[in-house]
Amino acid sequence: MMVPTLPSDAVLGIIAPASPVSPIKRDIALERFLQYGFSIQLGKSVSAQYGYLSGDDELRASDLEEMFLRDDIDAIFCLRGGYGTMRLLEHINYQIIAQHPKPFVGYSDITALHIAIHQRTGMVTFHGPMVSETRKKESESSFLELFRILQGHNPLPCYQSIDHFLCLTPGCAEGKLIGGNLSLICSTLGTPFEIETTGSILLLEDVDEAPYCIDRMLTQLLLANKLQQAAGIIFTSCHKCNPPINHPSFSLEQVLLDRLSSISVPAFYGLPIGHRLPNLPIPLGCRAIIDASNGSVQMIEPSVYPH
Fold first, then answer.
1. Which of 64, 148, 281, 286 is the one with CA 20 to 30 A from 157?
2. Where are the domains of the chain?
């Protein structure tokens, strides 16, 4: 299910469904986010804190639902990831989302919401930069591309590996693009929100995980038959996923080759998407074609329709 494009006078709702941001960093990020020319409305979770969460589960779930219900809100942006969205999945009324489709943007811990929303409603969501990242000047190109996509100016974006490209299994594949953060994807296994990968292009990314941790999570997905069922696999980036110093280890690339090259599914490593800059936005829930031989992704189904 596509979502409406952003009008030029769009009002963007901002929520914090996972971890909080310090007031100083939050205020700087919000001020810079306003420079993109849109009005904003803040959810209650943006200024809340409950331990390591941005408010309790009820507040954060109701914040999400309210932003979808409100007719004056044109899109929903997450303030940051961190931890907490898995706790919301069983509390969300997905019928509200299905009846009020609109762009929903985030990544990292937000992966759990991407998976649950799409599998329960069929709605397209957007794996892309979050509001707290506006504090970094290098994020500007990612946000500009995100707004181009959301306003319908780039309906079928194409992505090309530009650095650290590694073909894991050559070949082309077509399917619905799904996925996100590897740790969160593994966390859905064995739950009512377990990711469904059959015939899909599975996007994976992570941050600050040692190669053995990536090995363990990929092995878990292999044992669950999730990687074999996919039509294609893209491991976009893994920032700070380096071998530990002075300890025996494989490199990240060696782990990816070992775990992914033996299942006869076209797969490659290396796209500017995830915990890195730039962090290019990409629609989830739309069909795409990948060419693992040259590290390219071409969306073949639009994610937005005229407002």
1. 64
2. 3-153, 158-304
What pTM was computed for the model? 0.98
164 given a catalytic annotation: no
Taking CA atoms, 123 is separated from 7, 113, 194, in Å, by 19, 11, 17
Q: pLDDT grade, residue 163 (50/70/90)?
A: confident
Question: Above pLDDT 70, what percent of the chain?
Answer: 100
Tell me what pLDDT residue 55 has: 98
Kindly state which CATH superfamily the domain 158-304 is placed in.
Answer: LD-carboxypeptidase A C-terminal domain-like (3.50.30.60)
Task: Give yes or no: 307 in active site.
Answer: no
In contact, 261 and 285? CB cutoff 8 Å = no
Q: Is the pLDDT of residue 69 over 90?
A: yes
Q: Which of 19, 54, 62, 108 is catalytic?
A: 108
- List, for residues 239-278, the tens digit of each pLDDT value: 999 998 888 999 999 999 999 998 999 999 999 999 999 9
Asked if the model's pLDDT at residue 288 lies above 90, the reply is yes
Active-site entry in 65, 145, 205, 209:
205
Beta-bridge partners for 287: 176
Query: What interhelical angle do 252-260 and 211-223 show, nearest 10?
Result: 10
Closest by Cα among 148, 125, 144 to 134? 144
Q: Does the annotation count 108 as an active-site position?
A: yes
